[in-house]
Design a protein that fits this description.
Elements (H helix, E strand, L loop, with lengths): L30 H6 L5 H16 L8
């Protein structure tokens, strides 16, 4: 299981560019997830990271955010 805490640094890899679905091609977060990262709880961060993994594995980004 992924371990995260509210002091966890962003999963940003400094390759910030949004695709046509508003998903970052570097970290696979949506723009909403990027903007709100600091305010998310541990549980929410874990969910976001899981979604990022799914998006990364599916280049079409057909997963809801």
């Amino acid at each position: 299981m992924l371990k995260v805490n509210n002091k966890e640094r962003s999963p940003c890899v400094n390759n910030c560019c949004l695709d046509q679905h508003d998903v970052c091609v570097g970290c696979y977060r949506t723009i909403t997830e990027i903007i709100g990262w600091r305010d998310k709880s541990d549980h929410q961060k874990i969910e976001i990271l899981a979604q990022c993994t799914l998006r990364k594995n599916n280049k079409n980004h057909q997963f809801p955010s």
